User: Fold these one by one.
Assistant:
Number 1:
Amino acid sequence: MMTRMAASRNPLPPSSLISIPKSWLIGLGVLFIAPWLIAAGIYARGTATEAPGAAAPLPLSEGGGTGPWGQLTITPIVISPPLEYISDDEGAAEPIVWRMPNTTSDVAASFLAWSGMPATDAARLLQSARPDPSTAGIALFPDAALLRSLTPEVRARLYLQLAKSRFNSAQAESYRFLGASAADWFAGSLVSPRTRQIIEPLVYRDGPFLHFADLDMVKSEISDEEEWHGLRKALMRNRTVLVRLNVEAPAEVEALTHYWGISGRRTDIRPLLESIAGAGPAGSIDVVHLLPALARNLLYRYPKLSAGDLDKPIIANCLWSSLNFFAAEPDDRFLDVTTALNTLKSDYYLIESGHQLGDVIAFLDGHDTIFHAAVYLADGLAFTKNGTSPMAPWTIMSVDNIKAFYRARADNPRLIYHRRKDL
C-alpha cells in the first residue's frame, strides 16, 4: 500500500528510485539509496548571495527542429489529475522536522550559515536541535514563523539539500512545476487569490522547475475542503507538450514512414502520412497517432489503479514504461527491477549517436547508478513517467528538462542510450 506522501506527491520519492550500479552491465546489483550529501565542504563553496536553485530557466519546451523524424511543431500544455484521483482524506498535518543524518550540531550550524539564514534565526533554530538516533544525526524543528520568513533563495538552498535525504520526505517529494513563476503555476486554476497569497511566497526554484514543499504547514490556514482539494489538484499540475509532425510533400512520406513506423508498424503509419502529405496548413498530424499502441494509450494520462494493482510490488514506473514501449500488452514482469535490468542487459545494445524512436535512455547520477529511464522520441524529446505515484502522468518532455526535474539526484546526469536488438 502506498504511503500518504507517496500517493500525494508527483515526483518519484528517493526511497523508490531505481538505483542500479553501472556494473549492471557485467553483473546486476540493486541498491535503494538516498544519500545525505551535506558535508562541511559544501558550505565553503560560495557565499550567501549564490543560490544553487536559481539557475536561469531552460525553455519550457525544446525541439521543433528538422531531422530524420521530419519537421516538428511544439506546443506547451498543462495537465492535472482528475479530482476523483485526489484523496479527500490526507490525515492530520505532520510535524515539521528537518532530519540531518550523520550530522553534528556544528555541521548543521555551518549549513544554516551557508544557506544565508539570518544568524538570529539560525541560533533560535539550533536551540531546537535534538539527537536523532534513527539517522545517527540530529533533527531540527523549525516553526511556521521561521519558515514564512525564508526568502526564496534561502529556501532553495535549504530544501534542495534536505531533499537529498529520504528522511525529509516533504522536500524530497516536493511538488514541482516547469514554469517561469508561481503565477504561471496557478494561472487558470480555481485556486482563490487568498490561497495563492498563502502559497506563492513559499515557492522556490531549482533551474527551470518551481518547487513547493510546505503543504503540512499551510493546511491549518485553508479550512474550506473544496478549496483544499482544488489547491492540491493545482499543485499536481504538469507541463508537457503537444508535438505535431508537418508533412509538406508526398516525397517525404517514405523517409518519415521509415522513422516513425519502426518495429513492424510501417504499413500502419504510411497511410496516415500519405493522407496529410502536401495538404498545406492542414498537412500535419499529432505524433501521438504515430506511437505504438501502448504508449499512445498512456500518453497525457494518469494510472488507473484497480484492487489487483495493490498486490503488485510497485505500480507502473519509468522502467516498466520504457521496456513496454513497443509492447502490444504490458509485461508486468518489468515491475521487478532485477527482471527489468536483466532484460535491458540481454535484449538491448548501447547506442552512442543516431538516436531513433524507441531508444531507452538511462539517467545515471554521480555514483554511476541509474535513477530514471525514458524513451527517446525525436528531436531531443522523450516519453517519460517521472515517478511511481498515480499522480505522475505519462508525458513528453525534452531530455534536458527531464534532467532538470531530477537535479536533486544529479546536477549533470550521464545518459546511456539502449536500442532493442530486434529493431
Note: Residues 1-58 have pLDDT under 50 and may be disordered.
Number 2:
Amino acid sequence: MDMSEQTTVYGRYTLGSGAILADRDKVWDSLADPQVLDGYRKSMLRDLRKSGIRPESMADWNVMDVGTGRQALVFLELGAKRVEHFDISPENVARMSAYRSDAGLAARLQTTCCDIVDADLGHDKFDFVYLNGIVQHFSDVGRGISNCAAALKTGGMFWLYFYRSGTFDNFVLYALRTLMYGSNVVPPGYRFGADYVGARLFYSDQVKDNYLTSIYMDGVFTRQARLYTVATYLRAMELLGFEVASSSGIDPIGRDVDHQFARAATVVTLRKVRAPDAAAIEAARGLLAPAKEVDQLDEALYEEPEIRETAALFKRLIATLNGLRATVDLRALAAMRVFAFLAQIARAADFDPARRHPELQALLKTILAVVEVEIPSVS
C-alpha cells in the first residue's frame, strides 16, 4: 500500500497508548519486542486473574483477539491452544503475518484483516473473545459486538474493555475530534499525514515518534470513537445472553456523568449463558447503534454548571474557527495545545481532578482571546 494513500490511522500513525509499558515510547518498537511483550504479559496476567480466569485453563481454548497483535502473542505464550487475530489495519496484519511465518506459528495463529462489524466470524467457535479498547472504534458498536458474541460458545468468556460516556477524558477528546473535522467520525478519504507530521513536530523534542504522537493520533483521528454509558453496555450484553463475571472501573455506580472520579475506560468480563433470539439481538444492536451515541458537548447532559460552561467554550471555539479567514491551520494547533493539557497536566498523578474544568476553561478562553483578536473573521 502506498503510504500517501493511507486512510486508516491504526498501524501506521498510532500503535496505541503504551500506558501499560514501563517505557511508554516503546509502543513504537517491533511487534514482538521482548520488553514490550513482557509489559503486556504482566498486565494481562493481572487482569485475567482479577477476572477469575486461570491461564492454565486456556490450554484447550480457541481465543479471538482484535488489535495490534501483541496481546495475541501473549495469549500464545500463556498456553492458549489457538489464537485468531483480527484487525482493520493492513499494517498490523502484515506485521503479524510476517511474524507468524518467521516464528513457525501457522498451526496456532491465524491473522485476518477485516472489519469486525461485517466479517463472517462464525458461530459457537471461540472459548474466549478479547476486545481490549476496541469496540468504541467499530462503525456500528451494536452490530460489531453482537457479531463477536455469536462467535463465542455458550459458556465462553467475553472480555469487554470500552471507553465510556460521561468522563472528563472522553469529553475532551470528543470535543477535539469535533473541532478537527466537524463530527465524531473522520470523513471517508481523510488523509492523516499532515496531522501526523504536526504531532511529531509539536510533541517530540527530536521530531521522532513517541507515546504522545501515538495517543494524540489515536485519540483525535481515530476513524470512530462512539461513546455510550456503562448501563447501556450492560443492558446490551444482557440481551445478548451474558451475565457479568467481574468488572473494573464501573464506579461510581448509577451515575452516567462524573468528570472527577469516573475512569475513562471500563472493563467487564462476562460469561455467555444462553443464545439470544433474533428479537433480543436486534434490541441490543439498537441500544448501541450509531444514532444512539452520546454527544459529549450536549449541555443538557450536565447538571454541573462548570461542565456546561466548558462545553459552551468548546462550541464557541469550534464556531470561531469555522468562521475564520486564516492562512494556517489553527484547528490543529488549538487541538494539540488542548491535548497537551489533557495528556501532560490533567492526567498527572498529583493533579487535583477538581481543577480540571477551571484550568481547561482558562486555556480555552486564552486561545479564544488570541484567535478572535488576531484573525479576521469571514464577513
Note: The CA atoms of residues 29 and 36 lie 8 Å apart.
Number 3:
Amino acid sequence: MYEYTYHGEFVIIKLKDELNEGNSVELKEWIANEFLKTGYNKILLDMSKFKSINSHTIGILINLHRRISLLGGELSILAPNANVRRVLEMTRVSSFIKIYESLNDIKDLI
C-alpha cells in the first residue's frame, strides 16, 4: 500500500498523497494490521511530499496518535515543509506529535 522501511524500532512510512476521507481509513487500518498488531508501535510518517494539510489530515493524525499511544507507542512526523509545519504548530499538534526534519534527527533514537 505505502512504501515503508524499518529503522531500528521505527517504521518510516512514506506518504505520497494528501490524506482524504477515502485513503485515510485505509491508512489507519493498514498501519493497525501491518505494524501495530505485529508489535511495531513507533511510527514515523514521512510527509515530505505534502504541500499543505487540512483539518481532515489533522484529525487523522490526532486519531492515529491516540490509537498508537494507547499501545505504548509513538507517532512522529518526518520532513514536513514550512507550510505543513506551521499548521502543525498553530493547531498545537506539534506539542504531542514529534516532528523531525530529517533522518539524521532520529539517528540517536535508532
Note: Residues 45 and 71 are 17 Å apart (CA to CA).
